[in-house]
Amino acid sequence: MSTASIQRADEVIAGTYKRFPVVLTRGSGCTLWDESGREYTDFVAGIAVCNLGHAHPQVAEALCRQARTLWHVSNLFYTTPQMELASWLTARSFADRVFFCNSGAEANEAAIKLARKYFKTAGQPNRFRIISMEQSFHGRTMATLSATGQEKVKAGFDPLLEGFDFAPFDDIAALRAKVGPDTAAVMLEPIQGEGGVRCPQPDYLKQVRALCDEAGLLLIFDEIQTGMGRTGTLFAYEPSGVAPDIMTLAKALANGLPMGAMLAREPVAAAFGPGSHASTFGGTPIVSAAALEVCRTLERDGVLDHARRVSDHFRERLEWLKGRHALVEEVRGRGLLLGIRLAVEGEPFVHACMARGFLINCVQGNVLRFVPPLVIGVEQIDALVACLDEIFGAARQGRVGNHGG
Questions:
Q1: Facing residues of 185 across strands?
Q2: Which residues are the active-site residues?
Q3: Secondary structure class of 175 (helix, strand, coil)
Q4: For the chain, what is the mean pLDDT?
Q5: Quick one: CATH architecture of 57-300?
Q6: What confidence score (pLDDT) does residue 2 get?
Q7: Nearest to residue 127, comparing CAs of 31, 215, 222, 29?
Q8: Residues 242-279: pLDDT tens digits?
Q9: By the 8 A CB rule, do 223 and 236 touch?
Q10: Which of 156, 307, 355, 371 ranks highest by number of CB atoms within 10 Å?
Q11: How many other CB atoms sit within 10 Å of the CB of residue 336?
Q12: Among 137-141, 280-284, 399-403, whose mean pLDDT is lowest?
């Protein structure tokens, strides 16, 4: 794709993304190549999507095998891949039921609808409000945008959906103050990814669970970015010792194919009867088969054990950078959802890394986020850290500009 082709793409594709002028054509593991053959080590992974890396051979084979058998039928019928995937997810989580859809936004839409329907079914129709967190991100549809605690992504879309209140993340007293007689649920990310890779205090989720139990609220965990091994456990809520009533997944569930899921406990899920909710492409045989292979690979090939080992190394190396460079103010995150908060704007460093063959991204203006495939190697991590060390040093001398330097 030449410069002229990129210009043509910009003329015909909706301008909703600020794209880098790079055309990626091939991937394998943690490596991507552009049309010129240039190689990049991928620390973005489609934004925490390709947890098994690119072109994973077993997932590709499962996809091809199912493509030769059955692609799609209506959810008016049963299919084996969907049943097996739902069985796998419920066996390894708090949940009893799974609703399949196509994206994280759809999964969160389903969670919002289920919370409201649950209280309507229970004879409490006035309980419909959901407390979400400031700096949260739950999606781009009207309902999930309404549930998102970032004004910058809401601009221009008023009036939003009624029924959402917001509390500061990791502040149980502030959350308690928001609870009223019309509150139905609390919805939060166990770690805020788009919000700047923000982790709560160790006992926060336990406190939220206790508050929900005390007030009779449902607890919804948005694990779209944190789920499927990203934080070192299959789901990020596990180390807290508590479980939600509803959980949403997407992103890494099918390693890049469109797949979302809402999981719920039986008493809550029962509020969704036939006709309550639906998705034409939710849990199609072809995507479910790929997602099932992703799930099995996470267990079978020791991916989570590897991710925990390399994440410890990665964090140590980022702390080393912090000790060397005053512009690094804080190392954040857990597992392979890591970030460094800078004292300066982060975007120039994204460009500088890309110019040197590393793909990273920036959130909240000054937080460099690292979400590589879970199969990333120590050598690749060390190479990125050496790159960051170099460009941070150059920044001290004013040699990193808006386009990477």
A1: 130, 218
A2: 137, 222, 251
A3: helix
A4: 96
A5: 3-Layer(aba) Sandwich (3.40)
A6: 60
A7: 215
A8: 999 999 999 999 999 999 999 999 999 999 999 999 99
A9: yes
A10: 371
A11: 28
A12: 399-403
Looking at residue 403, its pLDDT comes to 45
* Extents of the domains making up the chain: 3-55+302-396, 57-300
**Amino acid letter, 323:** G
Distance between alpha carbon 324 and the CA centroid of its chain, in Å? 30
Scan for tokens 């990814």, then name that residue.
193
CATH 3.90.1150.10 fits 3-55+302-396, yes or no: yes
